[in-house]
Amino acid sequence: MDTIVFLVFRRMRAPLLSLILVYAVAMAGLALIPAQDAAGAPATMSLFHAFYFVSYMSTTIGFGELPNTFTDAQRLWVSGCVFATVAVWIYAIGTLIALLQDPTFQRAIREHRFRARVRGLCTPFYLVCGYGQTGSALVRGLTDRHLRAVVVDIDPERINLLQLENQREYVPALCADARSPAHLEAAGLRHPLCQGVVALTNVNETNLKIAIAAKLMHPEVTVICRADSHAVEANMASFGTDHIYDPFDTFALYMATAIQAPCLTLLFDWLSGFGGERLKEPLFPPSEGRWVVCGYGRFGKAMYKHLKEQGLEVQVIEALPHKTGIPEEGVVQGRGTEAVTLEQAGIRRAVGLVAGTDHDADNLSIVMTARMLNRGLFVIARENQHHNHALFDRVGAHAIMHPSLIVANRIGIRLVNPLLSDFATLARLEDEPWACELVSRVLALVEERAPHVWEVALEPGRAFAVCDAIARGESPTLEVLLRDPQARDERLPVIPLLLARDGARWLLPGLDTELEVGDRLLCCGREWVSRRMGWTLQNLHAFDYVCGREGWREGPVWRMLAPLLRRARGC
């Protein structure tokens, strides 16, 4: 607000001074020029009457002469003052209109409104720096789950795009450089409800500066960054950045897991998807044979490393090996779009292909040419621009790597269901039969739609009934929590995936596990189950009912209706 007032007074200083000067001269002239009263006797005009007359004279309304009829000298003076005041008013109004159209003033107005909206947030939110493909996907995922976000981006076109999008929750946005601590503070970095800062710009150095500023200005806040360089990633980790995501290493690890444990990969895909979507089909990348990697940049190197760790034979094709480096097996120089280059790399006897250059047109051409030479290839294609997604769907790739969507998905999981990341870490330590059995259980639970995954926190504000029972000395088990509060003899279609307690984590906790205040439980099932379970957690009568007591019929109305309900169930 101080900036707006400063701009107004700085730009309007000359017009205001001109108005004051013209008004003062006009009033002084009317007060000094001899006048006459109604009887024709000499008189003078008071300053009050002069001010009143000049006030409406300058707007040319013309209420008349007061307090008495003017003399010719007064009328001559007034004639000149009319032109002077009208000219000054035109000058002032023109300056004011120019000020309202000034980009700096409009920016100050927008920033003032943005600060007011951020200060007015009364629910937890996340500060997202960068609204490119990754940021837009993350914000959309957060708002779809009714979480709040605040966006800062330096590109005005992206901010305008955000304002045009139909988000489920209103997203305050500021067009500014997120590297500036002042802009981060304006976006709510110091706000008590700020849950985390997510740096998702396409410049590593910018993300690094955002992470440093966030840790210095608000050390307790969670900081999540995207990094496309191992050097920048190490730098971020050195000062305590909480989570760092490299899309290329993340996808390469995902494909390595798919080669080694396809059921475990399928389980992660189902659990990390949006509830209600159709279940994804499993991937079965070949675990033996020759792979051809086209492009030895950041993505190509990550895929090369993880494929070699699986004991596979890998041949690299690179157009500029003197810049990217040469692997120990050597390199076939070229872009991979030509049949000759692919044949030199042994594409006809290969089992897998990675089209991982920085250009979507080259990647599409590589896939089409390679499939003409070898129809049995398992194809992984890198999609750099999301608007080309329809083309990659039609080219026949088995797996598509989009860096922005991968990072957005991983960060979304971390923010929405933090325990799911812990579950994924522990599940990787289990064998493939364990994952296949769990996949079968999930499939039987949800049929053809992706499961709904949610967290249950045993806290007084979120599980009042359970915490109250524990405080009374009871020891409710997990089996009680999974009973249907409408029919306690039936079990809810839900699978408890993980139990977190005092820093410890247990996969697939048993039904006889006793619950404690502070426990956090990760569950998967159908969406309506989470609402039914919430009833048991919060409602005392529903909790008594699932525990075997008749607490839900303690009121006089229920006692009167109970016999009727028993007879209806008997029928």
TrEMBL record:
Residue stretches making up the RCK N-terminal domain: 123-245
Keywords linked to the UniProt accession: Membrane, Transmembrane, Transmembrane helix
Highest rank taxon of the organism: Bacteria
Membrane topology category: Multi-pass membrane protein
Presence of keyword Transmembrane helix: yes
Major localization class: membrane
InterPro entries in the cross-refs: K_chnl_dom (IPR013099), NAD(P)-bd_dom_sf (IPR036291), RCK_N (IPR003148), Trk_Ktr_HKT_K-transport (IPR050721)
Membrane-spanning segments: 16-35, 47-64, 76-100
Gene3D superfamilies associated with the record: 1.10.287.70, NAD(P)-binding Rossmann-like Domain
PROSITE patterns (UniProt xref): RCK_N
Subcellular location: Cell membrane
PANTHER family reported for this sequence: POTASSIUM CHANNEL PROTEIN 2-RELATED-RELATED, POTASSIUM CHANNEL PROTEIN YUGO-RELATED
Protein name, UniProt field: Potassium transporter TrkA
Protein source organism: Marichromatium bheemlicum
Higher taxonomy: Bacteria, Pseudomonadati, Pseudomonadota, Gammaproteobacteria, Chromatiales
